[in-house]
Amino acid sequence: MPEQKVWYVTGASKGLGLALVKKLLENNYRVAATSRNLEDLKRAVGQVPEDRFLPLQVDLKSSESIDQSMKLAYEFFGQIDVAVNNAGYGIGGAIEELSKQEIMSSFEVNVFGSIYVIQSVLPYMRAKRYGHIINISSIAGLAPHTGWSIYAATKSAIMGMSDVLAQDVKSMGIHVTVVAPGGFRTEFNTAESLVVADYKIADYLPLHEGIRQFVSNHGKQLGDPEKAAEVFIELVESDNPPTCLFLGSDAYQRATEKLTGLLEDIQVNKKISERTDSNYQ
User: pTM of the prediction?
Assistant: First the structure.
């Protein structure tokens, strides 16, 4: 029987979030789970013990909504040990094709929503001098494909933020892990979790074709959400969890190729980098 940690999971009505919530409940953890639609969340999770599951309707664009849900979770369970920022969605299209509203909405959910959750949960974790924050980024945060510039920007932001956050809270006994998944067999490739620019510019035709191929790959991805859920639990139960984890062999390969190429570029341009030093001769 694992220790009865309390998990707070966003975006729990589908995908990796739902797989994680179900796995946690199967393993006797206590879970506060959020979704935009409470009934969808309850229906997706099914019948579970009421003393171990708290479904919450939350607007991730509202810090007040998040604060209220965190307060309810704490009052219900008496503690919050793990926070998982899973909620988010994909956005495809060239930068000049996407509207200001489409871009702003993606940042509000994919970035600011995670920030609000972190700000809301940290007082509880600092008081206990214990906790673990898991932020779900994407391999696109490091090695994106063409056509996903704004999505890559949001996920890069999550990676950079998580890296510094981990340093800031380490002395308080709080762990931070940013997880960058590759492709998983969830609804991510469907209209439920994906926005594609309505406005199309003919010069970006190859980009549009790449997005269509991505959508057509639904159900064929390598990743298994249930196996990902098991990894999340292992991370939290580990004595020394990683700060960054690439999830899936596809993510591992893309990250390795990207970092190898980046290191080569850095070394090739070393002399140019050094020329700007005040003491360069």
Answer: 0.92
- 9 and 17 Cβ atoms separated by less than 8 Å: yes
Neighbouring C-alpha atoms within 13 Å toward the C-beta of 69: 28
Of these residues, 5, 14, 23, 155, which one is catalytic? 155
pLDDT digits (tens, 9 = 90+) for 158-201: 999 999 999 999 999 999 999 999 876 666 555 566 788 889 99
Q: List the catalytic residue out of 137, 138, 149, 162.
A: 137
The Cα 235–Cα 229 span in angstroms is 10
Of the residues 89, 151, 162, 204, only one is catalytic, namely: 151
C-alpha span between 8 and 122 (Å, rounded): 12
pLDDT at 220 over 80: no
- Whether 155 sits among the annotated catalytic residues: the reply is yes
Distance CA 269, CA 246 (A): 28
Q: What 3-state DSSP class applies to 37?
A: coil
**Is 152:170 a contact under the CB 8 Å cutoff?**
no
CA gap 39, 22 in Å, rounded = 16
- Is residue 22 part of the annotated active site? The answer reads no
Three-point CA angle 75, 76, 78, nearest 5°? 65
What number of other Cβ atoms are within 10 A of residue 75's Cβ?
Answer: 9
Distances (CA, A) of 151 to 25, 74, 90, 92: 31, 32, 6, 7
Do 30 and 42 form a contact (C-beta atoms < 8 A)?
A: no
- How far from 55 is each of 17, 26, 216, CA to CA, in Å? 13, 16, 32
> Is 159 in contact with 180 (CB distance < 8 Å)?
yes
